[in-house]
Design brief:
Elements: H1 2-15, E1 17-22, H2 27-32, E2 35-37, H3 39-48, E3 53-57, H4 60-69, E4 74-76, H5 92-101, E5 106-110, H6 115-118, E6 123-125, H7 130-136, E7 141-145, H8 148-157, E8 162-165, H9 171-174, H10 178-187, E9 192-195, H11 201-205, E10 209-210, H12 213-222, E11 227-231, H13 237-243, E12 248-250, H14 266-275, H15 284-300
Parallel strand pairs: 1-2, 1-3, 3-4, 5-6, 5-7, 7-8, 9-10, 9-11, 11-12
Bound molecules: 1,3-dihydroxyacetonephosphate (13P) and iron/sulfur cluster.
Amino acid sequence: MEKLANEVRALCRERDAVILAHYYVDGAVQDVADYVGDSYYLAKVARENPHRTLVFCGVTFMGESACILNPDKKVLVPAPDALCPMALMVDAEKIRLMREKYKDLAVVCYINSMADIKALSDVCVTSSNALKIVKSLPNKNIFFIPDGNLGRYVASQIPEKNIILNSGYCHVHTSITADDVEKAFREHQGAEILVHPECTQEVCEMADYIGSTKGIIEYAAASSAREFIICTESGVLHELEKQAPNKKFYFIGAKQICPNMKKITLEKVRDCLRDMSPVAIMEDELRQKASAPLDRMLSLAK
Ligand code: 13P
Ligand code: SF4
């Protein structure tokens, strides 16, 4: 593994490349990366980074967003088949119908979506900035796509808005049930329950803290509690153990694995740097349309 990691680092230097990795990818890939973080942090890095080539270790919408934000760079995607199923759970027709129904509608698009849907939206959000951005919008009526659970959580915190929900969901987060969490809590009394807002309402209602992957890691590191039940994808354990080595983290069995994030292996990272392929590509017209809501997110989230 160390030989492979050294090979990857040498190729990065040769290609003037940097590696961006989400907290859900394999620990060996996180360790070789230049930047590791949540979706918002990685989008900011993709926009601001001076290197010519970005290697995006995450599901495809993440590489696609990096490509939208940074048209002059080459964005390598080690596993182009790593789709986030939720990103496909809304279509253009639903947006069109909703815009017809509400004249003042703002379409708020979770970054877990494809470029053609972003292009039809007013603003993008991630789980770490959705509350701030939705609150700042002048519109009363908001169509929140594609994640119904994140949308419901945002609606619960901003009752003054009429937030219309879509039925998309993350199969990893919704597979964590309230019964699972209750059972884990019985086994670890006193543990704090940290929840990603893609989880169901029942699970969110049991939470001591609700936030993005980065928020969960920061909360656990700062908390005076020693034990935590973690309700998000288990890849976060790698950083949790670095940030809080003396604390204990519990997960709900084998349910908390995103199979698509796990398609990104160190071998594939090495191969794509060696071959300078596969790359995220997009036609210019779509890129320009999809970049406006991402730009708006970056400026409203500041
Ligand atoms: P974060 O933005 O919290 O990292 O979440 C991304 C994601 O895909 C959650 O499933
Ligand atoms: Fe998509 Fe869920 Fe995987 Fe996140 S954990 S990338 S929302 S399938």
